[in-house]
């Protein structure tokens, strides 16, 4: 029997930095945190300040129990992570000065232990594939649907990262339903512009006005109306779900995953899988594009939620040793 192992995990997002010490039990069962902490990212203070905060959070985690021998640090980072170096190759305006931070090399140097950095969405996919709803499956296509849409494809335990580290931007593929609608990335006609939580709120507001006059309409408002049988909300949710399903069908035609896993804010809080309208619309969209041998591919709901990137980052570290 193997020994109990410990990995330090960090998940860096635009809002918070989560850190943990994950214990991998000797019996091979699912890893769990024996230490966890969370601090605000405050990204407006710039990349250097954020970097110091991350290093501090890791040192604190490592010091939480000096008797635990930690093998290394797995980092899930917002932005595009260069697979060759672990540096941040690109980050959007949500994290100013984050692009160019040599995250992996600097942490390795500062901590004197193995450090592996992977994109946060890719880490999420790794988490679900190894220990979530995708465990024991050969390949998993994981999509996170929240404010935006991101994804990851994991085959035989390894996540597809791409040459630049940018693989998995599933929100930014062309969608017929999004024709002419501007996307957050600066292009137009992308899936994210019709199927994200933000887009569901925006589409409703453009057509029918605000649900609550005092604030912008969000996906959750539309979902609530949809459940009450509101025809306007049903049509918007149908459109968003169908577009997502059609893109899933196209992606399945390329990747042929054993299972598709959906996760993120829209799934767990907003127009979620329990909404029959959305579920049926996703299935209809999928069936409209997927090839015959792929029609039965299960579409499942992620089960790790916020823990997925931490677990995935730890798995990435273990795979890199
Ligand atoms: Zn886009």
Automatic annotation (TrEMBL):
Q: Which Gene3D superfamilies match?
A: 3.30.420.40
InterPro entries xrefs? ATPase_NBD, ROK
Q: What is this protein called?
A: ROK family protein
Q: Give the source species.
A: Collinsella intestinalis
Q: Which residues form the signal peptide?
A: none
List each coiled-coil range.
Answer: none
Q: What is the lineage of its organism?
A: Bacteria, Bacillati, Actinomycetota, Coriobacteriia, Coriobacteriales
User: Belongs to which family?
Assistant: Belongs to the ROK (NagC/XylR) family.
């Amino acid at each position: 029997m193997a020994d109990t192992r410990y990995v330090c995990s960090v998940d860096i997002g635009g809002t918070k930095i989560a850190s943990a010490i994950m214990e991998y039990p000797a019996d091979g069962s699912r890893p769990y945190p024996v230490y966890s902490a969370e601090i605000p990212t405050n990204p407006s203070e710039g990349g250097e300040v954020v970097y110091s905060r991350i290093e501090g959070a890791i040192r604190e985690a490592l010091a939480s129990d000096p008797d635990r021998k930690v093998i290394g640090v797995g980092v899930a980072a917002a932005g595009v992570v260069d697979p060759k170096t672990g540096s941040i190759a690109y980050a959007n305006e949500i994290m100013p000065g984050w692009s160019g931070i040599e995250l992996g090399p600097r942490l390795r140097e500062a901590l004197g232990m193995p450090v592996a950095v992977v994109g946060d969405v890719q880490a999420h996919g790794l988490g679900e594939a190894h220990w979530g709803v995708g465990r024991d499956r050969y390949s998993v296509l994981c999509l996170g649907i929240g404010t935006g849409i991101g994804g990851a494809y994991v085959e035989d335990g390894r996540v597809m990262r791409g040459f630049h580290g940018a693989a998995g931007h599933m929100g930014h593929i062309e969608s017929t339903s999004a024709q002419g609608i501007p996307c957050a990335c600066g292009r137009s006609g992308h899936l994210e512009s019709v199927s994200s939580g933000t887009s569901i709120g925006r589409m409703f507001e453009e057509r029918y006005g605000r649900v609550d006059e005092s604030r912008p309409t969000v996906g959750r408002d539309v979902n609530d109306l949809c459940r009450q049988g509101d025809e306007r909300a049903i049509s918007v949710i149908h459109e968003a779900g169908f577009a997502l399903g059609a893109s899933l069908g196209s992606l399945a035609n390329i990747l042929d995953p054993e299972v598709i896993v959906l996760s993120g804010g829209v799934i767990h809080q907003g127009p979620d899988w329990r909404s029959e309208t959305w579920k049926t619309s996703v299935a209809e969209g999928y069936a409209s594009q997927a090839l015959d041998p792929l029609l039965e591919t299960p579409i499942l709901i992620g089960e790790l939620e916020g823990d997925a990137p931490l677990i995935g980052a730890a798995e990435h570290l273990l795979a890199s040793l």
